[in-house]
Design goal:
- By secondary structure, the protein is mainly beta.
- It has one domain.
- The chain contains no helices and 2 strands.
- The chain has a two-stranded antiparallel ribbon.
């Protein structure tokens, strides 16, 4: 198991807010991942 901490700005794609993973963190299809989101600043 590998564990990473990243800090990213949320991007906009159409009407959706998205977070783009850096290429080094891209995982294979059907991989199981756990995401924990903590909003550090911005509108809630």
């Amino acid at each position: 198991m590998k564990e990473y901490t990243i800090t990213k700005k949320v991007a906009k794609q159409g009407s959706n807010s998205i977070i783009i993973l850096p290429k080094v963190l891209q995982v294979k299809p059907n991989s199981l991942v756990e995401l924990k989101i903590k909003v550090l600043e911005g509108d809630n």
